[in-house]
Amino acid sequence: MQSLQPFHTFNIPANAREIIEATSIEQIQQAWQKAQAENLPVLFLGQGSNMLFLEDFQGIVIVNRLLGIQHTEDSDYHYLHVNGGENWHELVEWSLSQGINGLENLALIPGCAGSAPIQNIGAYGVEFKDVCNYVDVLNLNTGEQFCLQVSECELGYRESIFKHRYVQGYVITAVGLKLAKNWQPILKYGSLVNFDPQ
Questions:
Q1: Distance (Å, rounded) from C-alpha 146 to C-alpha 24?
Q2: For residue range 4-45, what is the model confidence (pLDDT) as tens digits?
Q3: In the chain, is it the N or the C terminus that has fewer CB atoms within a 10 Å radius of its CB?
Q4: What global pTM score does this model have?
Q5: CATH class for domain 2-64?
């Protein structure tokens, strides 16, 4: 058994039969195949910010450690390809350090980029769907990788296709963000209405 305590934000003592920190899609597939061969349950974790362990987990925990951010641009937009294991808040900070605006309202949301589409995270009048371009998905049973455009993700209030059709046997490997260069701050929510951007 391995300790889960460092892998979730509640830090409650709990163990898993095995914990695999996957830094590649191949490692994720291998861990999944091992679990299937041994008939063990699988739990995917990002930052563990939405998990409360009440007892030990008698299976394999796969921690998403797929890292990397790729940036391209055209005359109107910045495009970010963000691997699923990237810390979301650190992504927001990185984008601002690069002079890329549009994610500010989504700062301080815990979790990984790969978790963002599942909940359609949102704060202060902005939701993930407002900045999403696409989501890359891995079919764990076939090894097929495919891309869903934002219109296919069924993103609603804390809702998505990843809670339904793609909830079992699939994992999000990356997200694509599209951020307008002609950016205007969203200041219509709560106390932000009193903020003077000048």
A1: 16
A2: 998 888 888 999 999 999 999 999 999 999 999 999 999 999
A3: C
A4: 0.91
A5: alpha beta
